[in-house]
Amino acid sequence: MFWEARLESWAEGIRSQAIVPLRLELWNGQRLDFGAPTPQVTIKVPHVSALSYLLKPSLFNLGKAYVEGKIEVDGRANEIISVANSLARHTLRPEGKFARIVRSFHHTKKRDEEAIRYHYDVSNDFYRAWLDDNMVYSCAYFETGTEDLATAQLKKIDHILTKIRVHPGDTLLDIGCGWGALVKRAAEKFGARCVGITLSQNQFDLAKERIAQAGLSDQVEIRLQDYRDVTGSFDRITSVGMFEHVGARHLVEYFTKLRQLLADGGLAMNHGITTTDPQDGETAYGGGEFIEQYVFPHGELQHIGTVLKAMQEAGLEAYDVENLRKHYAKTCGIWADNFENEAERLKTMVDDRRFRIWRVYLAGCAYAFANNWVSLHQVTCAKTGDNGSALPWSRRYMYAQ
């Protein structure tokens, strides 16, 4: 048959380039191995029609086939992602259709709210199952690399609040406050008066509940609000894991809004995922396409050079830039392991399609950060012309105990 010859030719092409710990099990009982004595991953192909996903194994095609139930895959998630990348790398050219293309979306308040709710309003219990107890859904900070996740997440929050020198009585705005961990810590440990905003109803409800339980309701306000609608002046501003949703067209507008909200002499911190492609391209081999369709609708990543340029154009001066790519690889790896360990419980919380999306997404993110496809930068900034008046001469203060 035609498909048999094509499949064998495809498999032989991969075997000639690499040993891949993969076994294919076809609907007719045939098995194909790819050189490894003990396959770590088994892909089960229940029908000949599913072969089209394999013969052009972009990360989008493979991810779609798995998510939509066109194929079944056995193996740990991190091993599945490693095998998928091997198939893509040894089969496809990184240029052309599978290149790191640049996307640009028009972001509106309604569209951004829908995208945020799609991603975050799964259920609080779903996130609680694989995050730390404080439910911090952003890159942790491993001072030594030996910390557990909860400790590293608290160190991340303290690292941010120390960098921007939060003092008792300071007003702090947290844009994209998640489940409230940062504003809660800023109030409890640093004595700040905080406003946290989110577009997720689930996050809003639980954050308010947690703030009330901590007895901080007169010190911390949680709002269901778009950052474009915030008014007032704040001594300190944090934005953690949010600006990925802003979009390239709106980056200067976003930083301009931060500048308008920042008090004279104030400090702001932008903590977010960046692409490592200087041309602002997304993850290669169709990885970005998968994330756009299934995980983060309308999300866009910019190179750190683009981010700094947009800040400057908006009237903000960067005083400190820290790359935490290695930290996010470790964070996502822990999340992916937690997800695998809680798989049976998680399957009772969401449908099979959603479970599969998150399973490959978390493991895929760990792989992408570990292999320098994407990065994470913290940028500390102030209004241009403030001359860094709120900052000491040395960076030593960031690490004072």
TrEMBL record:
Q: Which GO terms describe its biological process?
A: lipid biosynthetic process; methylation
Q: MF terms per GO, please?
A: methyltransferase activity
Has keyword Methyltransferase?
Answer: yes
Q: Pfam families attached here?
A: CMAS, DUF7884
Catalytic residues as annotated in Swiss-Prot or TrEMBL: 365
Write out the entry's keywords from A to Z.
Lipid metabolism, Methyltransferase, S-adenosyl-L-methionine, Transferase
Cite the Gene3D superfamilies for this sequence: Vaccinia Virus protein VP39 (3.40.50.150)
Domain DUF7884 positions: 15-92
- Highest taxon of the lineage: Bacteria
Which InterPro entries does the UniProt entry name for this protein?
CFA/CMAS, CMAS, DUF7884, SAM-dependent_MTases_sf
CDD domains referenced in this protein's UniProt entry, alphabetically:
AdoMet_MTases (cd02440)
Q: Which PANTHER family match?
A: CYCLOPROPANE-FATTY-ACYL-PHOSPHOLIPID SYNTHASE
Assigned protein family: Belongs to the CFA/CMAS family.
Tell me what this protein is called.
Answer: Class I SAM-dependent methyltransferase
Which organism is this protein's natural source? Noviherbaspirillum saxi
Lineage here is:
Bacteria, Pseudomonadati, Pseudomonadota, Betaproteobacteria, Burkholderiales
